[in-house]
């Protein structure tokens, strides 16, 4: 009952007095075996007693009626089920304000989205639209769509590379969870991040589609923070920021068969922005395709950072089409002065092929305080397809080249550009 009261209070961003009243009413209803809306018992589809349809709890699929209460009422029944249960979003357009699906739950939970869930423009007390929290053994699936309505707020977002900034709400956030699978769904026009995983373990994301215009700010496809054993597979991500961004404290992350672009590439970082960040290790990106992204394969860290480490990073078997900055380590990212103290070790870029619009195919710009060690660039064949003519050349003086600073870079195999001078 306490969880239920907290869900309603956090989800409905109205006046404090209204929140308190709603919490008291909700608690009373639950105590009497009811839920908001007046019905008693565990209403479910007649064909399957473990499937709970949100329309049976008051949701209206007209695209205009805020159905957040129906989502919460349905979740309470699903989460309290002693056997595996499903929350079903059927065909239709369901407007919903911020919703928190909190656990722990009594059994495995499936959220099956067949319709379209549409975000409200305002009313966000916390920086997420839909939050799953403290729920283990969850499957989020279906052919439906989460539409974040980011086009209504992007012009007001001026975060850029600011040290302090309050981003608009993330569309789908997963926090303090284990054993999560996400498949089939689409996310369109998130206000900020499409997905944000924080303090999660054993997560599999596959066959999803995340889409926003190339000019949309901070619409990262999938952002990870303190996430362990995460796999992102067989998906399409086309956004205005990083397709995948691996943040602080992440370990054992696999990204395979992802099509990225437009966007800012596949990134580790930015790291070192905050105090006492945890190390990052075991990040493996393989068999991905990048199309007209502003960056390709990137590691980025802030200057003036606290000490931390990045180790065991592999980017292999990558196809690029007209990619800018295809291979880049940037330890001067952001607007804060001073040397980065994020130590980068054991990085492999291997079998990268296709086309680029940047003269410097490889840009390794490491910290004076902690130079990069064990950076390997092997079998990189990228043809320059940028604007012909002009005076601009690569750092090596030719049409294409490589730039290395404060780094021990080992080049090998077949290369389409001259190596950095020793």
Automatic annotation (TrEMBL):
Signal peptide: none annotated. InterPro entries: Glyco_hydro_28, PbH1, Pectin_lyas_fold, Pectin_lyase_fold/virulence. Keywords: Cell wall, Cell wall biogenesis/degradation, Glycosidase, Hydrolase, Secreted. SMART domains: PbH1. The active site is at 264. Gene3D superfamilies: Single-stranded right-handed beta-helix, Pectin lyase-like. PROSITE patterns: POLYGALACTURONASE, PROKAR_LIPOPROTEIN. It comes from the Eukaryota. Belongs to the glycosyl hydrolase 28 family. This is Exopolygalacturonase clone GBGE184. It comes from Camelina sativa. The lineage of its organism: Eukaryota, Viridiplantae, Streptophyta, Embryophyta, Tracheophyta. The gene is LOC104738760.
